[in-house]
Amino acid sequence: MDVYSSEEQQVEAIKSWWKSNGKAVVIGVIIGLGALVAWRYYEDHTQTQKIEASDSYSQVITGLESGQANAIAETQAFINNNSDSQYSVLAALQLAKTQVEKGDFDAAVAQLQWITKHTTDDTLLPLAQTRLARILAQQDHYDQALTTLSQVSAQGWQGQVDELRGDVLVEQGNVAKAREAYIKAQQLGGSPTLQLKLDNLAQAK
To answer: Alpha helices, DSSP H only, in the chain?
Structure first.
């Protein structure tokens, strides 16, 4: 026997169900559509922000490279206003380079230290760390430079790191450990100057 014996009973059952549940269905549909619209808006807004950040990044970098007045201040403002974007890290790298060229090493150190705290990118992070170590060594902050180098964990950078570590150790007068660092770097395929550096250490005995 059918559950419903006539079409009238089916219609009455539908009406009764709708009366009890229709409001919840309508509200659910409205909430679902609202969430979809909100998500689409978020995606569009996020994409717009990325495009705007890209355009602003290009402008400030152009200003830095051409030496425009207030370029450093404008680049710093861009970094502050886009701190959650990788564009801010790229801008900070370029700003640090400009500051080094101007002899403002303390500002460059601060910039590079900021980068190490705001990116985990396998290319940008070790680049910032090694540049930071070079500047610290140039400022005779050898221990800080070595500590910074010890924090570089990205594969593919170890040859450069060991060579730079050797350079720092040479400046400290630690010839034995410098030689070890250079040999390790050479084994990892370091720069062509490594053999010259090792020869110089041999002559320094």
So the answer is: 7-66, 71-81, 86-101, 105-118, 124-138, 142-150, 158-172, 175-187, 194-203
